[in-house]
Structure prediction request, 735 residues.
Amino acid sequence: MFDSVSGATISASGISAATKEASNKSANDYMTNSGIKEISIVSPKSKAVEVNTGSPVDFSNLKVKVVKRDGTESEVAWNDFEANGLSITDEDGNAIENGSDLKAYGDKKVIKAKVIHKQSLSYDNFRILVGRYSKDYIVGLEYSKDGTKWYKADTLNKDSIDSNKIDDQQVIEAPTSFEFENVKVRLVSKEGHRYEYTADQTPVSKKVRYTVVKDENPNAPQALFVTFKLSGTEADKQLVENNSGNTENPVTPGTTEPTENLPEVSVDSKVIETVLDEPGRPKWTQGVPIKPATVTSLDKDAEMVASIEGLPKGLSFDGTTITGTPVVDDDNWDGDDGMFKTVTMKFKAKKNGKLLVREYKYWIYRDKDHDGIADDDEDGGTAFTPQRVNAKPVDVDGKAPTLEDYKAKFSNIPADGSVKVKLVQKPDLSKKGMTKAVLEFSVDGIDKKSKAIVMVNVKTPAADAEETIPEVKVDSKVIETVLDEPGRPKWTQGVPIKPATVTSLDKDAEMVASIEGLPKGLSFDGTTITGTPVVDDDNWDGDDGMFKTVTMKFKAKKNGKLLVREYKYWIYRDKDHDGIADDDEDGGTAFTPQRVNAKPIDVDGTEPTLEDYKAKFSNIPADGSVKVKLIQKPDLSKKGMTKAVLEFSVDGIDKKTKTPVMVNVKTPVANAATSAVTSGTTSTRSAVTAAISGNSSVETRDSGKANKREDIQKPAESKVVAENSAAAETERTVS
Prediction:
């Protein structure tokens, strides 16, 4: 009988009610022979349906997993509920229809509901939340130092529970020139609205708190915490085109009528037309600016929506014209043996309370050799194809051309460094007349290299530029670095380094403001190395994959010579993303949480959120690489100390870490016991089984320290595993 129990309250009355329910379910199973063991809601993950006050309820995003007694499983979308015997009721069993105005529930802000399988009586609970909600979700983050030229942030961190919402903790990879600027930020919604924020401190420091200027969209957090990571130049960043800095067509937040609740009507090219239909137009090619394309309504009473659903990354739409450069982040090239990617867009216009929608398929063509030519228009992308600006030679008047002079003869070399250019044959600059240079073009991931000849017209002979600066090898007596000092914190993958100076001890020598071989993510300003080391490959060559050796060259100029000190250093691996080098803990077999302090979470009548629990730890990355789950809820029904258990998991790491968080209940939470069960179960059987078997215990394990590498780099953080007490460390377990 217990196999039929679900949703029970762990109390005498609860078990009694659950047992009665189980009996009914068991009897019903016997009579109907439905074959359904249980059902569970899989979408939305939060098990909550949001409804804007006064608007009809929309169940279209609901999706349920159905488990049969023979072990087979299937997922049922809302459109198939009725065909699969599923319906929706409130907690009293009253049916709730899709599109209902919910007036029967008065001013209730939370309506308890369930998806129920009619024959088996299996069900799962969810909540209908009535209040200020919107489906105009936030889809972008932009930043600017002067309010006129805006750049798009590379990433937008999503909420860990509801992927439609954004996290209030964000990271912006800004140019180094922004370091001492009063940087502005704004959020961009799905419908193209922009919401500006003001900073609580200026100029920008490492982490800044921003507050929304106008509270016009419930999906835009009141406060936004932005961590700035400075690297590169403005040319490296993605410029926002047709942004609200354009005074001719400013985008005013909140001025566009919401469209999320309007009924949609499918239309064709007779209602919404686009010049993309015209034959002979230039195709959209990855990384190449498109020819502007208009999308307009032929119905004079319909107003185009200033956003396009499904518009590729890098493109924008101002209500009339699509512009920009298409960016493809994944590798899903679905057409013609990987030559192009199909995109499906929706052009929308509003008319008389309806949304006219034209679905439109288009294609982005691949350019894996980065030459600006679609691969299917040349040799399949097997090598970079250089495009000349003109056939004129490079003129030499007593000064040898630089590599940049040669590169300027070609129009399609990307500025992002994805195409490497090398001078493989130098011209003869010793006598007047025509001579030639040969350039070699190479692209990472493309085996074939291409070569191109550049003619050189020597009007006045010149010495070879590189021969005028011979290299001289030096050691630490000429160029010194604090990296030589024992006891310095090691460089760990993904962890900001302690700034390291590199200086010349020769007062007549001038340091070169670049370091050959400097790892990605680090920068050198002529004095100090700063930044966060990034490792893109998997070539960990030391100590069974625990670290990677890098070879750098520190350079200084003196009297026409280049003083060069070759220097080897190491980046230590952190595959579990806990900010601790793997060889300083257990080899990176599991995430090691670092506590902010040992204080419990205080509860005064309100249940803590997952973010409240996460805030007790200092090393959870903001990029979502570490997933956090609450696997044991605390008992919030009575005063006193209780505990929750969090589980940390990392993609690619088999072991999961469990850590208790103590909770001090000062004021109990109403209905805490019921919510603790119903939100995490899908049938009464699991709750009663848990009540009978008792709570799972949390066992401790050894910290599993690995042998440390003791040489120039002596780890400074290696022993900081549990910051506040040994007891805190022993609370952690790994499953």
